Amino acid sequence: MGVSDLETRPSEQRLAGPPAGGPEELLLTARRVYLGKTTEVARLLPDRQVRMIGAWCFLDHYGPEDLGDAPGMRVWAHPHTGLQTVSWLLEGEIEHRDSLGSLARVRPGELHVMTAGAGIVHSELSPPDRPPTMHGLQLWVALPEAARHGRPHFDTVTDLPRLTREGLRGQVLLGEVDGVRSPAPAYSPLCAADLELVAGADVEITLDPAFEHGVVVVAGEATAAGTSGGVDQLVYLGTGRSRLRLRSATGARVMLLGGEPFPEEIVLWWNFIGRSHAEVAGFRDAWERREARFPPVVERGERVMEAPPLPTVPLKARPSRRVAR
């Protein structure tokens, strides 16, 4: 499962992770973005100041949303290239289908990673028998050059390893955190962990100092290193840290992200990642033509999302470092 970027006027961005520059503490606040006409999410990456954390290039936090009599998620068939979608539900249930023939129920505590490679098409729909609340995180990982033209695949990991320390419990989604390693597939050095801090928690975990890291608060309030954040805020920590102190007076749930600074510039537009404006425009054209790169999820007559118009001006390079305030 991977929620599409449904913005009707998506900006075109040339992105690169900030180069290694030592420890930092920068507090970022999500911007509110509508997916379609009804669903509002908190978008934390890419940000004006920090565009990537390692290979992590896109992060939305949605919910908790009381669905009531609403239809829930309705993301029709749409394409992806050059990325992995990493889907993590905290509450609710979503049905994933893709052009490989995969059919999966996405549930809390189970990791679903869709590797688009050269091209894949998928849809995400709330099933009729869904729970009443939907709450989750949608993340994208940029694939490096060596992997981005590969065959697509879909992986589900239901037995993620537990990370338990005094005052902290969680699961490691990708990579390794504090000596606990996930079996989920990854194509560049990175990590992710969903961590719950009990009230009064004050704990330290080990980090890879070659990675840059970020801590996203999804519930409660927490302090990472010396910076406190609330829901829909991200504490960016830079590189060069071998340990991280996490604290929470009242309890919190956070997502820890990390990775080696991504060495390649990417162009992220709508649901595509490429390396140039022309390449992304080619992906869009291939989707509009329904070329073989993008097979149907079920059949060619299925309901799909059409790509928005490309910008009227060519892509202009963005600086690789974050913009200073």
From TrEMBL:
Keywords: Iron, Metal-binding. It comes from the Bacteria. Coiled coil: none annotated. The keyword Metal-binding applies. Fe cation binds at residues 78, 80, 122, 124. Residues 193-290 form the Pirin C-terminal domain. Transmembrane segments: none annotated. InterPro entries: Pirin (IPR012093), Pirin_C_dom (IPR008778), Pirin_N_dom (IPR003829), RmlC-like_jellyroll (IPR014710), RmlC_Cupin_sf (IPR011051). The keyword Metal-binding applies. Its cofactor is Fe cation. Residues 1-12 have a biased composition (Basic and acidic residues). SUPFAM superfamilies: RmlC-like cupins (SSF51182). Residues 41-141 form the Pirin N-terminal domain. Residues 1-23 are annotated as: Disordered. Binds 1 Fe cation per subunit. One of its GO terms (molecular function) is metal ion binding. PANTHER family: PIRIN, PIRIN-RELATED. Belongs to the pirin family. This is Pirin.
